[in-house]
Amino acid sequence: MIYCNGEFIEDSTPCISVQDRGFLYGDGLFETMRILNGSPVFWKNHFSRFAKGAETLSISLPHSEISLHSLSKNLIEMNSLKQGLLRIQLSRGSGKRGYSTANVKSATLLISTHSLPGTIGIPNKGWALKTSSYRIDETDPLNQVKTCSKLKTIMAMAEAEQGGFDDALMINTKGEVVESTRANLFWMLDGAIHTAPINSGALPGITRSKVIDLCNKEGSSVVETRIQPDDLLKAEGVFATVSTYGLVDIIGLDGQEIPKSPTTTRLSKLYQILLHSTGSL
C-alpha cells in the first residue's frame, strides 16, 4: 500500500497525473528515513528539513507535522513493516506545460514504505569510491534541499558503478571533497575527526548531525575542513553517514586502499544505540 493525495491505495494503482511537475521536471522534494519497531526514526529532524526544503521551493505542505506523522504511521501499520524505510515525496503538482509555476494546482503528496537494501545495518565490506567527473556548485542554495532533480547524482553513481565502484566521491567547483552521491563523509586525520562544511555544497544530513552530536558528547569534536581528494588517502580512516545504513567504512578511492579505523567501529556502535533508543520522534 501507498498513500497518494488523500487515499491509501495499492502501489500498482495509478495516482500521479502525466502533467505532474515532479514527473515532468523533478519539481519537488523528498525525505527518506529509517523505520524501526514500526516507527519512523528521527522524525522531527527529517520533518524539519522537509518543511524547510518545501519553504525554499515555495511549495505548500498539504498536512501539518502531526497529520503527516499519523499518515506515515498508518501506512507502516497497513504494510506490517517493523523495519525498513519510509519515503515522503512532495511535488508542486500539475499545471500547464512549461517551467512557469503560475496556475499550478495543489501539491502532490506520495508516501511509501520500502525494505532495507541488502543486509540490515552496516555493509561489512565497506564502500569503494570513484571521484566523479560531475561537480557540485557550492554556491547553489538548492544543495540544502533533497530535491527530486537528481540527474547529476544519478550520472555520478552510474559512472562509479560502470567502473566497478560502490559510490562516487562528489567534489565541488573548487576541487574540494563534499560528499558521496548518497552520504556525508567523515575522515580521521592528525588525531581529529573531520567533515566537509555545509557551505562547501554538502547536504545537511540527519545522520551527519547525529554523529557530530555523539562526538561532542564524548569530547571528540568534529572539525569542518576543506580538503582535496588526495588528502583522503592520507587519512587514518574514512566513513560515510546515511540514514539507510548508519555509518559505513570507506575502504578505497580511485583504486587506492583506505584503511578501516577503530573510530568508525566505536562511533557506529554508539549510533546504533542512539538509533534503537530514540523512538519515533
Explain what you see.
By secondary structure, this protein is an alpha+beta fold. It has two domains: about 1-115, D-amino Acid Aminotransferase, Chain A, domain 1; about 125-275, D-amino Acid Aminotransferase, subunit A, domain 2 (D-amino Acid Aminotransferase, Chain A, domain 2). It is built from seven helices and 15 strands. It has helices spanning about 20-25, 45-55, 65-80, 150-160, 205-215, 230, 260-275, and strands at about 1-5, 5-10, 30-35, 40, 85-90, 110-115, 125-135, 165-170, 175-180, 185-190, 190-195, 220-225, 235-240, 245-255, 255. Strands 7, 8, 9, 10, 11, 12, 13, 14 and 15 form a nine-stranded mixed beta sheet that branches. Strands 2-1-6-5-3-4 form a six-stranded antiparallel beta sheet. Strand 11, helix 5 and strand 12 form a beta-alpha-beta unit. The longest helix has 16 residues, at about 260-275. The radius of gyration is 19 Å and the shape is globular.
